[in-house]
Write a structure and sequence with these properties.
The protein has 321 residues and is mainly α. The chain is built from 13 helices and no strands. Helix 3 runs parallel beside helix 7 and helix 3 packs across helix 12. The longest helix has 43 residues. The chain is flat. The chain starts with 21 loop residues before the first helix and ends in a 5-residue tail after the last helix.
Length: 321
Amino acid sequence: MTATFRLETPAEPSGPVDQLPKPTVRKRAAARRGEARAGLAMATPAIVLLLAFLIVPVLLGFALSFTNARLISPEPLRFVGFDNFVRAFTFDPTFFRSAINTFAFAAVVVPVQAGFGLFLALLVNQKIRGVTAFRVIFFIPVVTSIVVVSILWKFMYQPDGLVNSFIDSITFGAWQGTAWLNNPSTALFAIIVLSIWQAVGFHMLIWLSGLQTIPEELYEAARMDGAGTWRQFKDVTWPCLRPTRIFVLITITIAALGLFVQIDVMTQGGPVDSTTTLVYHAVLTGYRQQQIGYGSALSLIFFVIVLVIALIQRHLTRDKD
């Protein structure tokens, strides 16, 4: 018979701290300090980037909005109070035009893009062959650089571009189209179409993820009650998509209000300020015209507008239960 010996390591004493031996208390305290230092070391890069590229620029922009700061100027930095804000609301017609364009863009893009994305999500949620290929096709514009997309659509919108050629073909020459980006009455509409086409695939995937979380048992119960396709959507699909609706609404609104790249690449705010937006006007004033103080004031006004809209959305979409 072979004897087996087992060596057991004494367990660390447990219990209230004031009843533990002093070496054990010191060991635990040292372990906690080591964990805290390790956590701080791992979080330090993110904290530094957050401070350098978010917190400090926001505070600096807030401070500069009350000064006459310029990038290159012989004049010394001087506190001007609310002069920049008064200038925006009284002496800057481009500010009002850019605000109108921004709200008009958002008013069209938010409902149309959300509705079209939901329609596409309902289509690609069907269990048919080849549906994955359609999901990829609809999502390709999202992963393509918005700068590249804007350049391509700028060529398409030219008088002899693809858009006018297509219109000429389907109308058999009855309508010749127009110079979409050079016409003040069509330039903003052209950018709206581009923006919806480019981003609808992203929100299609968001809607699709919401649709796939709805239990199939709910649809089976609705069908047993005699509900048709429309009633299933109205009584099952739409109520269950409430969290998804809120997320889609917020993301589209933020993206629409922050419109900049398409304007900068395709129209530079023209013609006759018909496509300038609040963000583009602030960037143009602050950096290209080197009026950092006034550009910061415009950015602060834009921040307040977005904050108010976000609070209104939060109030309207709150859980009333």
